[in-house]
Design brief:
Strand order of the largest sheet: 1-5-6-7-4
Distance between the termini: 26 Å
Strand content: over 45%
Helix content: 10-25%
Order of helices and strands: EEEHEEEE
Length: about 130
Amino acid sequence: MSDDARLGLTVTHRRYVPYSHAHYGGNLVDGAYVLGLFGDVATEVCVRTDGDEGLFASYSDVQFRAPVIAGDVLEVSAVITRVGTRSRQIAFEARVVCRAQPERGPSAAAVLAEPIVAVTAAGTVVVPPRS
């Protein structure tokens, strides 16, 4: 196991999912929305570790585990799992931490007692060579 201090670095963003992103019946949001959030959190990982926004090279795994619905509050995290010369492997997770409750009223919502893991992924980013 490497003793690289960048291993295990975690970055977390939170985002409210607006109703303008509902794409399907039941105010369901498409999976690409969360992949965009994974790109945002990966960018911050690269800035923190390498002083550069980096480029997303690939996903090796994406799992859509639960629906994301307009009115959700998502917590999106990225954790560096491997550091190469110019590549960083990252584990991603998007959790629903708050959810709208329209049955209680048009603006009702609640903090979930247990977050719902909505999407997980593994990906690789690349950064420029160190000068």
